[in-house]
Amino acid sequence: MSDNVEITEKKEQIGTCLYCGQERHIQTIGELSPAELDAMATDMCLCIDAVNAKRKKAREEKIKEFVKKKFITPEMCDYIHLSIELLNDKCFEEFQIKQYPDKVVKIWIDNDDFLHIRIKKTEDDELKA
Ligand SMILES: [Zn+2]
Questions:
Q1: Which pTM value belongs to this model?
Q2: Is 52 a domain residue?
């Protein structure tokens, strides 16, 4: 009888935070590329730039999810993302878009740098039967 051989070999590799250069020992299974290790080290790092980058990414994901849920076609989503980009670049102060048939979309960035997307219904849903 032979013992079972452990197939997955745990390794300790080193990754570097892309922002502060701090090195980190990372337990990996199998070999990871330096880029993957650096991305993991950056993700674990608590330096201000890494934390800000994580926050920014989370915020972008949140915006993407909202836009995808609220705007039906890919073209509409692209248009909203373009509007957000132009607001971020300070090209425009706000956008107001009339969305057929009964919605008005307002997009702006407030003084604390928060992005707002407000979808307002201009007509009430009413049934009289
Ligand atoms: Zn760092």
A1: 0.70
A2: no
